[in-house]
Amino acid sequence: MSQLVNRSGQCLCGSISFTAAQVNPYVGACHCTMCRQWGSGPYRSAECGNRIAFERESLAVYASSKWAERGFFRRCGTHSVYRLRDNQTHCVPVGLLDTEDQVTLDHQMFIDEKPSYDPFTGDSKTLTGEALFAVLGSTQNESVSFATHSEGIA
Q1: Mean pLDDT score across all residues of the chain
Q2: pLDDT of residue 8
Q3: In what order do the strands lie in the sheet with 43-47?
Q4: Which has more pLDDT, 144 or 17?
Q5: Could you tell me if residue 146 is left (phi over 0), alpha (psi between -120 and 50 degrees) or otherwise beta?
Q6: In 3-state terms, what secondary structure has residue 135?
Q7: pTM of the model
Q8: How many whole angstroms separate alpha carbon 154 and alpha carbon 129?
């Protein structure tokens, strides 16, 4: 497993900040239809475990699927978190981190849903939606770490 680091960040308007104690510096990009609909492009996020604290509770949360919730800051609308419901693993948009230049794109998910107009390139690992669910299904009772489960990743 990669070395987890402490990181902080803030919303677009700067009124809300957060700290996370388990940020994985190997980030991913999700090309699923829902993520693209949410942010008009792939969701590039850093996995932060469940040790994340927001300066004050001002999140609006939407249960976007059976397995996850999506949040945004009420004041400025900045996307704040993608949170797995079972184990409360948080993934925050990389752009919110104060040190976003200290991460490495490591993997892409739902590569089979990436639109043809998206020039997303690089040497990162890729997963189809089916392969991602196969990996997640094999870790039902564990803390899920997308970056560290290489089974099924091309």
Answers
A1: 83
A2: 93
A3: 59-62, 68-73, 79-84, 90-93, 43-47, 26-30, 104-109, 125-126
A4: 17
A5: alpha
A6: helix
A7: 0.76
A8: 12
